[in-house]
Amino acid sequence: MKSFCLAVTATLALALSASAQFGSIMNKAKEKITKANETFQPWTAQEEQDIGEAGAAKMVAVFGLVEDPKIVRYVNLVGQAVAQYASRKLPWRFGILDSDIAGAYALPGGYIFITRAALSGMTNEAQLAGALGHEIKHCAERDLEREIRAKKTSAWAMEEANASGKADALASVKADAFVKDLFNTSLSRDKEDGADEQGEQMAEKAGYAAGGLLQFLTAMRDASAKPENKKMFGQMLSTHPSFDSRIAHLKPFVDKAGNSGKTLEARFQAAILN
Ligand SMILES: [Zn+2]
Questions:
Q1: How many angstroms is it from 194 CA to the middle of ligand 1?
Q2: CA dihedral defined by 98, 102, 108, 111, rounded to 10 degrees?
Q3: Count of CB atoms within 10 A of residue 266's CB?
Q4: Which of 162, 199, 227, 259 could form a disulfide with 133 if both were Cys (CB 3.0 to 4.6 A apart)?
Q5: How far apart are the CA of 187 and the centre of ligand 1, in A?
Q6: Helices in the chain by DSSP H: which ranges?
Q7: Distance of CA 70 to CAs 60, 61, 114, 130, 237, Å?
Q8: Each residue of 35-59: pLDDT tens digit?
């Protein structure tokens, strides 16, 4: 009996010490996460501009730009209207990549791209406003910068370690790494949901009918179901949640919003399709 008691006491003691240890590990992890959030030092405005510019140049070199001045002017007009409601003021610039892959991308410092294929899947201006709004949110809140710097992939670990002097060379190396990560990194679900919600809300504030982004996501879901379009959507689906889950998340926000804004279908068709 005595030895049984001892065994129980010993087991309890072990259990206590294990839970105490586990508790301290949990606390350390919490501390670390809190510290990481507190110590995130965003790139300076200058770094952001340098990295964004070098990254944008790389994207343009790889895909080419649609240079039709009418389309460029139009996409910038819509983008600027939405970006007024972003959480940060940046020198926003919107470009159209000459690519058959449906996509939109946010580089640091206000450089936003949408592809020719993505535009061809839209039928009105509210859809374009919502899609650009999604990217504007990623850019304003530095979503990808936070994600890739927190993950410390090898390239980033090296960059950050070497981040002393040689600003120009570093901006170019960082831009290369950023563009690579842009095509390979999935942001956390809350960042994507936040981009859909805020993209939609910014477009509504700018006067567009509610549900533009939702319509665009639905059109992309339907197009992506066709086997011949697999390549067109592969990259977006590898870095974003499924269209179905994004639609399910966004729909309640749109239903709540009412519908007093404009879709501007005729203006979109005149600018993009003619
Ligand atoms: Zn996104």
A1: 9
A2: 40
A3: 10
A4: 199
A5: 7
A6: 2-39, 45-63, 69-83, 116-120, 125-140, 143-151, 154-161, 167-184, 189-205, 212-224, 230-239, 243-257, 265-268
A7: 19, 22, 15, 20, 30
A8: 555 567 888 899 899 889 989 999 9
Cβ distance 116 to 101 under 8 Å?
A: no
Give me ligand 1 centre to Cα 180, in Å: 15
pLDDT digits (tens, 9 = 90+) for 62-98: 999 999 999 999 999 999 999 999 999 999 999 999 9
Single-letter amino acid code for the residue at 179: V
Distance 242 CA to ligand 1 centre (A): 11
Q: What is the DSSP string of 4-70?
A: HHHHHHHHHHHHHHHHHHHHHHHHHHHHHHHHHHHH--PPPHHHHHHHHHHHHHHHHHHH-B---HH
In residues, how long is the chain? 274
